[in-house]
Specification:
Shape: globular
Radius of gyration: 16 Å
Oligomer: single chain
Helix content: 40-55%
Distance between the termini: 25 Å
Order of helices and strands: EHHEEHEHEH
Number of helices: 5
Strand order of the largest sheet: 1-4-5
Largest sheet: 3 strands, parallel
Structural class: alpha/beta
Length: 127
């Protein structure tokens, strides 16, 4: 969203978007029991779940808030383990996006059922 913030976009279709990167980074820090002070001191920390946390990137995210005004349609799985329902609802309300929630959908849409739901969702929006 930051990269296309100043582009002329008619519509955006998001599938399981990360809409609050700072919150996700802070959540991952909590999962890994890493404080901001420790991250600032070490600069980069690889977690036990395979993600590398970066102090520089956390600072970048904080200094570059998303300003999104494109007509947006969001598909979200209610079992998304990276973005909470509260976070996705807040973002959708803030940018006036249309939010569709798939029951038993995950962050990564990959099963046959999830992919069929995604296909139907896109087809319905493109009519």
């Amino acid at each position: 969203m930051c990269a296309f913030n100043h582009e002329q976009i008619d519509k955006a279709f998001f599938i399981s978007p990360i809409v609050d990167m700072e919150k996700l980074i802070l959540d991952m820090m909590g999962w890994a029991d890493i404080t901001e002070e420790k991250l600032r001191e070490k600069q980069l920390i690889t977690t036990g779940f395979g993600e590398t946390l970066s102090w520089e990137y956390l600072c970048y995210v904080r200094n570059h808030p998303v300003n999104w005004s494109v007509p947006t349609y969001i598909l979200y799985g209610d079992k998304d383990n990276l973005t909470s329902q509260e976070t996705i609802h807040n973002f959708a309300n803030d940018v006036n996006a249309e939010l569709t929630i798939m029951q038993n959908g995950e962050h990564w849409f990959h099963t046959a059922e999830q992919m069929a739901f995604l296909d139907d969702w896109i087809r319905g929006l493109l009519k």
